Amino acid sequence: MPHVEVELRIAAPVADSWAAVMDVESYPHVMDNVRAVRITATTAPDTRTTAWSVDLKGSVLEWTESERLDHAAMRFDFHQLSGDLTDFSGYWGVRHGDDGGSVVTLSVDFEIGIPLLADMLNPVAAKALRDNAHQMLTALEQRLVGSTG
Question: pLDDT tens-digit profile of 28-45?
Fold first, then answer.
């Protein structure tokens, strides 16, 4: 299963970064590649279901995922319940950076679900997902600390 992981150091306190990461419904307002995110259910204080629509290299990728939030670890794990891919899971995490800021990670494992074309499509999809993840993290950084360049 292909794996994509992107990290970004952000000059913001971990509490602020964690709050921004958890606020998924704000993503469409600050991230150009996120069309929509809606929390559709909260089944426990730290478990929710969200519906996503994201632009991915000229295509629209849509899915519904279950999310488990671990506030103490500043991490939330997700896995697709239904959607365009056969499998889509991973986590968002925030940890203390060496410089007093924070490090935000988006890690994703995915399966397109077309075995005969996997060798050709997986590298293209992995690059597109990596680019999208980087755009998402950069947008979070800009939201937290302003323009970086």
Answer: 998 888 999 999 999 888
